[in-house]
Amino acid sequence: MCGIIGYTGKKEAGAIMLDALELLEYRGYDSAGIALSAEAGGEPKLLKRAGRVKDLRTLCAENDTSGTCGIGHTRWATHGGVCDENAHPHRFGKVTIIHNGIIENYRELTEKYGLEDKLCSQTDSEVVAAVLSRFYEGDPYAAIRKTVLKLKGTFALAILFDDIPGKIFAVRNVSPIVAASTGDGAILSSDVAAIVPFTNQYFVVPEFHVVCLSKDRIELFDLSGDKACIDWLTVDWDVSRSDKGGYPFYMEKEIMEQPQVIGDTIMPRIKEGKPDFSAEGIPDNILSDCKRICVIACGTAMHAGLVGKSLIQAMIGIHVDVVMASEFMYNDPVVDKETLVIAISQSGETIDTLEALKFARKCGSPTISIVNVKGASIARASEYVIYTCAGPEIAVASTKAYTTQLAVLYLLTARMAMARGLWTKEKLTAYMKELMRVPKVIEEVLLRKDEIHHIADTMLNARDVFMIGRGLDYSILLEGSLKLKEVSYIHSEAYASGELKHGTIALITEETPVIAVVTQDKLKSKELSNIKEVQSRGAKVILLIKGEEQIEQEKIWYRIFRLPVMADEFMVMPASVVLQLIAYYVSADKGLDVDKPRNLAKVVTVE
Ligand code: AGP
Question: Tell me: the pLDDT tens digits for 110-130?
Fold first, then answer.
């Protein structure tokens, strides 16, 4: 959470930082600010305010923003409410900082260093500026080292010292910082998204290392002051993938990209018609020897894990647990050498998933992560990594990351079956053929977006929406429901249809739209009976059903969407896309800020 940017070079830093902050705004959008280092040394120019980056832009337009070195921040509030004083950068003595993360011992530090009446904000971050200032006696590295050793919690800090103009220092623990040379200077950021407009070469600043950006070089040191080697990485998407491409919102663009990015994710991993993870170096024994699997993830990524669970249990016959990463550590997790732990994360930075993964590794579990952002912390903390090829996902609501995670889980299931010698050649061939059809089938759904838009229109004034299904249908409805509430603010719940009558059916009235998904042959008759139960209570049922399935009395349905036909285990793909589009259209038609729903942030780096 919180986006950070720093630039020093030949160009105007103000303009570069404002553009970058717009790209980083998905990390948090409560307030924003920049500090411009004074060319001849002295106090930097500080401009910050509560609100969006566009409000900061207005403030900058009213002020002098000349200068070629600066740091900038977009905030997702944790400690201290949303107001100008709590916006970053924070300044104390000769030190100006921006911070992403949480300093857990900020109260003790405030007390220890007698800062109670010296601070201007309610943030934990300003305390770091004060401690740094206390230790700063002309040697930035010594001050940073001493400060960092006093901090408990997570942090990515970018720092300006008044008497070292033109240089930016940065250090981190857990929260990410990447850095790169821009040709005319140097840049650092919380995300590669802000770096891609300048270069495709970057590196991840290692934890507890200090990076120093000057106009003509980048230097990296460990905490004892020894020079460290830089491990350069290449971004494999270009800047055009980070714009809206003519769509009104990133969410729509990202939904529309799914046929392409699912193809990009699966095709390089299919060799001679078989799933292949040799490029990732994943040995088959990891997949064949495990006795159980534990998936750890949050939100949408966890919902992808639930689909994976159904697939693997049904097709491989081994037990799979899907655990909310935020609960994992507090439920006395039982994972061991025989448990394959799969961490799923778009950003690769979700702190709960990262901590759970580190714990699993300590327990000796083999670990595979499914991550979208190259070089992200979860990818680096895991033994093996499979990158989804979704490209940058900017909308806070995850769409293409989810379906590419599913695509990887389909591949893994097939590889696991091969490694265990479970399927016949014919079964594997049929399964892989079906997987390769997914991009085409999703394209068919996207071509029918107007039909889906009409369905969404029926929900615009709903107070509650229920979604019901069984088995795999229930798993995808959990995701469909999260999507709807996240972007439209309509209360929505996904329910296993058989469970409704154990209490929740009391909430169904004539005003309640119910989305029912029926795609699994073996569950169809039971699902249809459960739907009747809500129809009898007056609910308006919107039915998503597989292809030309025979259903009685078409007119009892409020709306019907017939999904393109795939093998049952693949039906989640077209059905998910319909649910994504419903959520999108409801939000857009309500005039909401689809890409930046209230209170949320794209990357969740606080527990
Ligand atoms: C979904 O739309 C959300 N943005 C959220 O649930 C997200 O999937 C979750 O925070 C996990 O993020 P990650 O994939 O980056 O770990």
Answer: 999 999 999 999 999 999 999
